[in-house]
TrEMBL record:
Protein family per UniProt: Belongs to the FGGY kinase family.
Carbohydrate kinase FGGY C-terminal domain ranges (all copies): 314-431
Domain of life: Bacteria
Annotated InterPro entries: ATPase_NBD, Carb_kinase_FGGY, FGGY_C, FGGY_Carb_Kinase, FGGY_N
Official protein name in the record: Sugar (Pentulose or hexulose) kinase
Organism for this UniProt entry: Nocardiopsis composta
Sections of the chain in a coiled coil: none
Span of domain Carbohydrate kinase FGGY N-terminal: 1-235
């Protein structure tokens, strides 16, 4: 058995896989998001670490065979300040945190994001490590002075399980251009963080691997010495777990946010700065457009209209494609948007409403708006091959029909539920030198094809979406988001 652990923003999952890649068991536990002040989102790192012990312990207690690998993945970005033992020195700053929005605007005026993008292929947004590091360096430098590492979620867990301080190329990419050669001095210089470079963990040429320590073994209930790997983080882990390896192929994770990715042969450092170029080892990259829209916005729409997630299919069936003329820009995240454009003050808008419309039209309009955002992201990322859908939103057949219609092509539906954990295991097996048939592990036979009429309607809807977006962007102001 192999166990993959996916340490998400609000849920930690442990998944067991057998030698053929079949899911043999899953455990999950929720973790909290803390909101100490408007626009600020934090997490208790000790609580997150303990959640890993809980899910792995519960899972291993009911497995019949020995566990040969513990592979970690998890949320990216944010800032996890740690001491020399990997223990937190303060609450972790989430990738959803918006305290650095004003700093991003000042950087934009000075051309900093463009410099970073030209050096690394990555853009800056309020929840990016560089923005949070620079904000703390200016506002609370003592927090950085007493930390040994400014790291990432999965790497915090890895260090406490193994004693090894390290990160992988995918996390190190954001935004400092990590990889076999380390960090980009140009990106550090542009963000004014050269003097804090010592806080960044060493970069391995793939997922770091180390034996489980005695203390780590006590937490997770596995034998000391069990191989542990760290990475890639959740976006590239999902791509690997879905079989997205051929340049031009892409995927959309319909989760809390809308993670759109396309496999590429090199980092994208030209054109308008947007998205991420994630190193995945061996000189390969993913062009990622992780929009801040997603199921968090759907939850808001359902809650606001007095419904729950169990009502989604009925609401989508009640309102026809096009939502009876209701349209929505789905930018509801407090920290704005980061793909396929960056604006920390991006906000949502509903148009076309009348007394004849009801909750179903609003919910469908948001679902269609999120699908339009996915198409916008995938076009910017260079999709020209096959497309895979996964994540919680892909469990809704009618929402999948919306995505397929908006894209105008058949979409493959990931057969397994836990693609991030699977991708972490596949990467981990490669890191420890254990051969595996990745094609067999990632085979996804289900597809959904669009009907011609919705494709025509959504093509017009997408043109309207893009025009609406361009019209409203100059009107977004920052005063209400600070």
């Amino acid at each position: 058995m192999y166990i993959g652990v996916d340490i998400g923003t609000s849920l930690t999952k442990a998944v067991a896989f057998d030698a053929d890649g079949r899911e043999a068991g899953t455990e999950a536990v929720s973790t909290r998001l803390l909101h100490p002040a408007p626009g600020r989102v934090e997490q208790d790192a000790d609580e997150v670490f303990a959640s890993v012990g809980t899910v792995v312990g519960r899972l291993t207690a009911r497995l019949s065979g020995p566990v040969r690998l513990l592979a970690l993945t998890g949320q990216g970005d944010g800032l996890w300040l740690l001491d020399d033992q990997g223990r937190p020195t303060r609450p972790a700053l989430s990738w959803m945190d918006g305290r650095a929005a004003g700093l991003i605007r000042r950087w934009e005026a000075a051309g900093v994001p463009d410099e970073v993008f030209r050096a690394t292929g990555n853009t800056l947004f309020p929840g990016a490590p560089a923005a949070l590091l620079a904000w703390l360096d200016a506002e609370e430098p003592e927090e950085l002075d007493r930390a040994a590492t400014a790291g990432y979620c999965k790497d915090m867990v890895f260090q406490r399980l193994t004693g090894v301080r390290a990160t992988d190329p995918s996390d190190a990419s954001l935004p400092f251009g990590g990889g076999p050669d380390g960090y980009s001095s140009a990106a550090l210089r542009a963000t004014g963080l050269e003097h804090r470079a010592g806080l960044l963990a060493p970069v391995h040429d793939g997922p770091p691997a180390a034996p489980l320590s005695t203390a780590g073994a006590e937490l997770v209930g596995l034998p000391a010495g069990t191989p542990v790997t760290s990475g890639p983080f959740d976006l590239p882990a999902c791509a690997r777990g879905s079989g997205v390896r051929r340049p031009g192929d892409g995927m959309v994770i319909i989760g809390t946010t809308l993670a759109c990715q396309v496999a590429r042969e090199k980092a994208q450092t030209t054109g308008e700065p947007s998205g991420m170029s994630l190193a995945t080892g061996g000189g390969a990259y993913l062009r990622a457009m992780p929009a801040m829209v997603g199921t968090a916005g759907l939850d808001w729409a359902l809650r606001t209209t007095g419904h729950g997630i169990g009502d989604l299919e009925g609401l989508l069936a009640e309102s026809p494609p096009g939502a009876r003329g209701v349209h929505m820009l789905p930018y509801l995240a407090p920290s704005g948007e980061r793909a396929p454009f960056v604006d920390p003050f991006a906000r949502g808008e509903i148009s076309g409403l009348s007394l004849h419309h009801g909750p179903a039209d609003v919910v469908r309009a948001l679902c269609e708006g999120i699908a339009y955002a996915a198409r916008h992201c995938l076009e910017a990322a260079g999709l020209d091959g096959d497309l895979v859908l996964c994540g919680g939103g892909s469990r809704s057949p009618l929402w999948v029909e919306v995505f397929s219609g908006v894209m105008g092509v058949p979409v493959t539906l990931e057969a397994g539920a836990q693609v991030g954990a699977r991708g972490a295991v596949l990467a981990g097996l490669a890191a420890v030198g254990e051969p595996v048939d990745e094609q067999a592990w990632t085979r996804a036979p289900r597809t959904a094809a669009p009907a011609p009429e919705p494709v025509r309607l959504y093509e017009e809807g997408y043109r309207r979406y893009r025009a609406h977006l361009e019209a409203v962007r100059p009107l977004w102001a920052g005063d209400g988001a600070r």
